[in-house]
Amino acid sequence: MIRAGLATALALLALPAIAAEATLRATRPGAPPVALRATSSDTHWTIAVGGTPQTIRVETDLPDSPPWLADANGDGAADLWIPVIGGNANVAYDLWIMDPRSGQFRRAGEISGLEFSRDADRRLVSLGRDGCCAISYDFQDIGPDGRLRALFGVHRQLTESGRGASCEASAGAIAPPAATIAALCRMPPGDMPGTPLRGR
Predict the structure, then answer these.
(1) Is 18-113 a CATH 2.20.200 domain?
(2) What are the structural domain ranges in the chain?
(3) Bridge partners, residue 141, by sequence
(4) How confident is the model over 27-52, as pLDDT tens digits?
């Protein structure tokens, strides 16, 4: 009897502990919302997509930080942001874009930063910290293949007072638009262009 109880206890200890769980409601235009049930183990987030046979499983170092929803590409449907790696400041997310018609999600890639927004041209903007005295803005979109595409970036070196000492653009898939760069370089460091994306 004692042996049986000990065996059961050891078997339970061998099971991965559930670190967190969350229920999310992903809205989409012209169709009912999609319910998502997210649960984590020590190493993975698993998301069951309601109403479809889709299950998303992603490795993570952040099992206590739940996924969240925000429209990354401006189509009106809530996209899925799954936290996977945390650093001193920036957090990396596995980004999954919802197809508004089917309610299913397709992986777009990994994006990292402190804050995110979508600008007036529907580009996805991430703000990241580069060490103690610099920040960077990365502008991306979802390419024709459904993957994240790096468009251009802006690097801002900061002074001790926290003001911008320099502001330099770098090209990616496109040349940095001069008007966008000029407007961004006039903004206080840390402010985000366009519509901020917050977890919901």
Answers:
(1) no
(2) 18-113, 115-190+193-197
(3) 149
(4) 999 999 999 999 999 999 999 999 87
